[in-house]
Amino acid sequence: MKTQVAPVRTSAQRADAIEAAVYLLTGGYPVALPTETVYGLAAWALNRDSVMRIFQAKERPKFDPLIVHLPRLDWLTNLCVIQDEEWELVEKLVEKFWPGPLTLVLPRNKIVPDLVTAGLPTVAVRMSAQPVFKEIIENFGQPLAAPSANRFGRISPTTAAHVQEELDGRIHLIVDDGPCPFGMESTIVKPSNGTLWVLRDGPVTRAQLAEFGDVQTQPRSNVPNSPGQLKSHYAPRTPVTLLPLDTMPPASSQGRVGLLAWSSEPPQHNFVHIEMLSPSGNYQEAASTLFAKLRILDSFGLDRIIVESVVEEGLGIAIMDRLRKASGNG
Length: 330
Known about the structure:
Layout: E1 4-7, H1 11-26, E2 31-33, E3 40-44, H2 48-58, E4 67-69, H3 75-79, H4 84-97, E5 102-107, H5 114-117, E6 122-126, H6 131-140, E7 144-145, H7 160-167, E8 173-176, E9 187-192, E10 195-200, H8 206-209, E11 214-217, E12 240-242, E13 257-261, E14 273-276, H9 283-298, E15 304-307, H10 315-326
Parallel strand pairs: 1-8, 4-6, 5-9, 10-11, 12-15, 13-14, 13-15
Antiparallel strand pairs: 2-3, 3-7, 4-7, 5-6, 9-10
Helix pairs in contact: 1-6, 9-10
């Protein structure tokens, strides 16, 4: 199989890419699409054979559920069974954060295949704000299951080139609309009885959610009850060591070691390569470049990557969630 990359820099390119993507999706084939968070591997969510091709291309275990993207808001009640007491809270969250990087976990309707939900009684749903993604899904007219477009457990892709590194020869098409602005997967929340249970931190912060209810962390279970809950995830091939907060990176290390620093280089070092998350100490910049920086370090054939911790406030919570999972301690 030859994987084609379709840029959307001109109006003609955009029209061709959208037509090709909709054609493949209608035929039951997955397509890599840009979202505002990371590139997703999208397929027709209500067609089991289409969804199976996602799992095959990613080598993803079937116990890990998928996020379903909606083409229109009215699909929410087609896919989900929302109790009367939950409606007001769900409506407020949708009005504030959709389209955007917030995923809601809600009781599912029977039309959602078990393969999408890993047999769970809930389904994770969101609406993307990315213009090309929106145009494709609106033209397709059906919900799309769209986990990150990488092989299972690896670093999420934030550019089309990252997708090609991961899935070249496994899928037919990658639609290239440049880097993803957030660079990090969506926040996942399960609303219940006025409480917002955070299943995965992301671009929508806990402080933003607190306006709508009591924000709590969902206790971890041995089996994922939403996407992105595995202990080891978003991981490079190179082993990762996460330093405790305010710990100075070691001046010398055995072997070939790289450093993912927060905002400045240590005064003395012999690292093979150093990447900085944000020279200005900006969490938004750090979140948007995190996965790309890890990929750069992973390309040097290092023995180990050392990563500086960041303060867990605002987006720092989501950044640390990804770093712990990259180190296998999620």
